[in-house]
Amino acid sequence: MISHPMTPVVYRVRSRRPDRVDTVTLTLEPLRGDCPPFLPGQFTMLYAPGVGEIPVSISGRSRSGGYAQTIRAVGAVSAALCGKRPGEVVGVRGPYGHGWGVPAAAGLDVVVAAGGLGIAPLRPVVRALLAGRDRYGRVSVIAGARSPATLMYPRELARWSRQGADVQVIVDHPDHAWHGPVGLVTRLVDRIVFEPRRTHAFVCGPEAMMRATAEELLRRGVAPARVELSLERNMKCAVVRCGHCQFGPLFVCEDGPVLGYDRAGPMLAVAEL
Amino acid sequence: MDAVVIESLEPLIAELRSRGFAVVGPVVRDGAIRFEEIASAGRLARGVTDDQEPGRYRLRETGDEMIFSFAASPDSAKRYTQPPRQALFRMRGERIEEAEEEAPRIALLGVRACDLAAIGVQDRVFLGGRHPDPAYRLRREALLLVAVNCAVPGGTCFCVSMGTGPRVTAGHDIALTELAAPHRFVVEIGSERGEEIVRALPRAPASARDQADAEEVSRTAAGRMGRQVETEGIQERLSAHDSPRWQQVGARCLTCANCTMVCPTCFCTTVEDSTSLADGTAERVERWDSCFTLGFSEVNGTPVRGSNPGRYRQWLTHKFSTWIDQFGMSGCVGCGRCITWCPVGIDVTEELANLP
């Protein structure tokens, strides 16, 4: 019998790295065979046996070829996944979805804007940009966090800076040791250099952050279709059958999660769409 | 094969059963027409009709010998094409086993044109995309459809507006038209499978009068629709996200999900997970869900659609507008079930007529 689209494949947790108090990055490899290829911005459905299944973006490929997936414990399923130790198994379906338009950024200045955990699905974008650094103009990464303790991937941010990106970080609630800027990510748009009419932007974070950042980029003259966002919606299937992720006429699981602001902007302006 | 006439449904039911089909037909149960397995024609509803209005459903005895004098029942074919609960898989240790898919052969007797259209919509949803559902395909192939041309549409019917009825034109194996004086059925063939079965029945060729009478049944039914919808420009009307009408209907809507449960095309599902206390086997089950529940749109603990107007707008807009964007067809077949079974009598046709 042909496998049902809702049946996961069993993967083993190879490594587990705590990123901050409530967030871990797992690397996952199938018990047999290789991980299917993925595009930056795509996600998998991760199944914690007996608990449930949630969509999680792929934040990179591990050295041994597995998926790196960063998970924050906010509910029963994500908490169960965060608690998985190396050697334990989970179920994986995917990868699914329409990812970031990295090739569309070729020859242009690039702005990567992340709020909180929104940096996880953007990490493969930055890695791809820096791996082909000479194909792009200025590459700026602006990242916001609630506090210095919740800033994601701090060592990687420093590495990206060394590899040729202008990396700027801001926090909303500084501690005594913080000497950087304070406020929301949108404030950093003024601190980076880009040619608005020749700029492509990748934005991910809480919806309010994405809308504010997109509006700021538009105000500066970036074309709406050149501002991409990644939406988060309730998802039970990721294969266009459960109906939960509908966003107007779109299914976020297949038409998204990455959408241009030219399409997403007017729909996000409608409350409860 | 040309149309034929049969005098009784008994030989048809016996023939279907001898071919291994469980025959499921309309019976009177719990004060309503329900679908259940029958062994003989004697179990079928007979001499009853239904009164359907917004929020109202009553059976009434007519005292005649007619079997199919009622309109849509709270059950639809969805129960058989997409069971309310179905096991997806079990996980034992590091092994996942898919649910053993059994697709019993079922002959659905008495489905109407709107129901056939609804099955067509479901086929598009479950088989037409990039992730076809093999379990749905098995169930669908095991289903034989003996349709009936509607004679007595209900007060909430509007299949004529949606272009789906009342006459059966596609999707059936066999189509019956019930005629009175003398009581008989005109039988039309919709598939090779259907023809094979009809050839095994005692039958007579349909006379010109039989055929004219059968056509008259559909013509009369088409003129007796209880409701209507203007489909011209419907997507444009439903793009009025800020209409005050949403607040008005949202104030009446109980978000009880009845409309989505009786709807023959609503396909949304959720999943349930459990672990056996005996041996630790994890199991995953898929079941019907509704966009009227708060949990449906919840992301990180907060629903995207937290208000009644927001959820009602999502349902109506999906059914009549964004469904067309997604699947190239309307999600509504005009059966009227959502109007009849709404406990506060919200009428989709009235809501659509009052949007700008």
UniProtKB/TrEMBL annotation, chain A:
InterPro entries: Cyt_c3_hydrogenase_gsu, FAD-bd_FR_type, FNR_nucleotide-bd, OxRdtase_FAD/NAD-bd, PyrK_electron_transfer, Riboflavin_synthase-like_b-brl. It holds the Pfam family NAD_binding_1. It comes from the Bacteria. Residues 6-102 form the FAD-binding FR-type domain. Signal peptide: none annotated. It comes from Microbispora amethystogenes. This is Oxidoreductase.
TrEMBL record, chain B:
Transmembrane segments: none annotated. SUPFAM superfamilies: alpha-helical ferredoxin. PROSITE patterns: 4FE4S_FER_1, 4FE4S_FER_2. Pfam families: Fer4_22. It comes from Microbispora amethystogenes. Keywords: Iron, Iron-sulfur, Metal-binding. Residues 242-274, 320-351 form the 4Fe-4S ferredoxin-type domain. Signal peptide: none annotated. This is 4Fe-4S ferredoxin. InterPro entries: 4Fe4S_Fe-S-bd (IPR017896), 4Fe4S_Fe_S_CS (IPR017900). It comes from the Bacteria.
